[in-house]
Amino acid sequence: MLVRMRPSLPDLCSLSQPSPLHSLSSPLSSSVLKGIEDAKAKGVKGSALDAAALKLASEHLGSASPAAAGAPNPAAAAARADAVSHFVLRLAYSRSEDLRRWFLALEADLFRARFRAMLPASQAAFISAHGLPFAPVPPGDWAAVRPGLAALTEAAGVGGPAAARRAAADIAGGATPPAAFYKVPFEAVPDLVATRRALLVGGSAFVSRADAASLVAGEFRAGLARGLLGAARTWGAMHQGGGGGGGSAAATAATPAGARAARGRGAAAAPPSQDEADRLAPVVASLAGRYLGADYGAEAGGAPGGPITAADIPALSSSSFPLCMQAMLSGLTADHHLKHKGRLQLGLFLKGAGLPLEEAMRFWRTHFGPKCGGDDFDKRYAYSIRFNYGREGRRADYTPYSCVKIITTPVDAGDCAGCPYKTLVSAALAAALSKAHVPPAAAAAAAAKAAAGHFQLACAAAWEGAHPGHELESAGVSHPNQYYDESRRARAADAEGAAAAAGGMGVVEGGKGGGVKVEAAK
Ligand code: SF4
User: Fold this and answer.
1) Vertex 14 angle, CA 11 and 17, to 5°
2) Helix or strand or coil: residue 371?
3) Pocket test for ligand 1, best of 341, 483, 484, 487 (most atoms within 8 A of CB)
4) Contact indicator for 198, 149 with CB cutoff of 8 Å
5) To pair with 491 at 20 to 30 A between CA atoms, which of 55, 60, 275, 404?
6) Counting Cβ atoms within 10 Å, is residue 458 exposed (0-12), middle (13-18) or buried (19+)?
7) Ligand 1 atom closest to Cα of 480?
8) Measured from the CB, is residue 381 less than 6 Å from ligand 1?
9) Residue among 341, 403, 416, 429 whose CB has most ligand 1 atoms within 8 A, to mutate
10) Alpha helices of 130-265 — where are they, by DSSP H?
């Protein structure tokens, strides 16, 4: 398969540190990256991950994509959409360390898959066009390196010992160099030299095509990392009149008002593109936090088990709430108060879980009561609860926050909002997982993933530990209400199985505290 190259976009490139290597990246849309992340969460790796990434890219960015439909030249239209998407996402995901890390990892996966799928001649042309110090093996070197490369191939054992022996024999008997190897300066591949995956001859290293793909991907990743930092600085400077400042500056300028305020605090002359920056700021800020799954709002069809009441919440929390919501409920129960972000996160989650407005009012009034009851509660909090349900202000149907939004929203000290896999230190996380009845092995797996920065994978490991015999229907956890819905379905299936095993019992959907009621069959 030939990998399509992106047209040059100097206007968009100017937002970042341009690198010619990025012409191969093009993640068309964050759907492709999200799909790759989901596949990795399922444990897909190696050539299967490459195939999944290429399929996603073809579906979302191929000439059959919506962007290309009806265009006179669908391939060129798709390539342009691909390129625009890449640079828009690069800007959107440049604004914080977490976002950059997420974007970099998945972009590199997509790049590697695309590079490996290229024909050898196209790979060589790409390497040459981008000035990388990798060259096909010169015919004049072939006699000297042939035995060593044959031995290297047999030792690598790709495809099993028999296949590796056959490949080695072909190399040993070949009169001309195959396209399967590259010659590179030995100082460019110290890891491959150290692990004996490169043949050293006369100051040069000879490496396989598979290893060369990883090296090219490494170059790509390094260039993209520089580009992301450059984009963050440029975006910050646009909003602060040249002050720079990366993520915090961009965050300050997340709204036009914020941008204007930032300029008013000492900016000299605004750059000519300032109005454009003001107009784009909210779009860019929202892109990186955009969640691509279901919205779990009140109009989304209702959670499994139907509406819930305030009285159901404690039991449902211990059976089916994700750790973030359990933590906020614990904080609320202990302090009879929750800060604004926590009230929004927990309140909208409960709304998505099926808590009607009247029950929400009862829930918050009961919990806040010891510190703020009666008229005081009505004056200070009732409006915002009705607001969440679209009964005040713009009367919008506000939807619960996704994991990406919760994880990337800064949390103040002492606030129990946020994702505990990110905010808690390891001892506190271990205690929280134990309190949530996650078995020790699953808790250890979750803690390891959290320590590596894979917060949603950690949450998925905890879910699977807390629901033995079940797997997440989605590849991982991307939304607290998805966690809850899947938990409710798993608990209902367990209760149904228990009823069937007990014999002659029927199951009624909608029971609380575990998801179902079990009744004697009529
Ligand atoms: S990964 Fe998502 S659902 Fe799980 S604890 Fe973090 S924010 Fe909550």
Assistant:
1) 145
2) coil
3) 483
4) no
5) 404
6) buried
7) 3
8) no
9) 403
10) 139-156, 161-173, 190-194, 209-240, 246-252, 256-264
- Distance in Å, CA 420 to ligand 1 centroid: 7
Q: Is 29 helix (H, G, I), strand (E, B) or coil?
A: coil
Amino acid at position 361, single letter: M
DSSP tag of 6: P
List pLDDT tens digits, range 105-117.
888 888 888 888 8
CA geometry: angle 268, 273, 279, nearest 5 deg: 110
Q: What is the DSSP letter of 336?
A: S
Range 422-453 burial, b when 16+ CB lie within 10 A, else e: bbbeeeebbebbeebebeeebbebbbebbeee
**Distance between Cα 269 and ligand 1 center (Å):** 43
CB–CB of 362/312 below 8 Å? no
If you ran DSSP here, which 8-state letter would residue 138 be given? Answer: P
- Which helix (H) or strand (E) is 519 found in, with range? strand 516-520
Q: From residue 263, how far is each of 269, 370, 479 by CA, in Å?
A: 9, 44, 36
Structural contact between residues 179 and 136, judged by C-beta atoms closer than 8 angstroms: yes
Alpha-carbon separation of residue 161 from 17, 145, 157, 158, 167 (angstroms) = 45, 22, 5, 7, 10
Residue 49 has pLDDT above 80, yes or no: yes
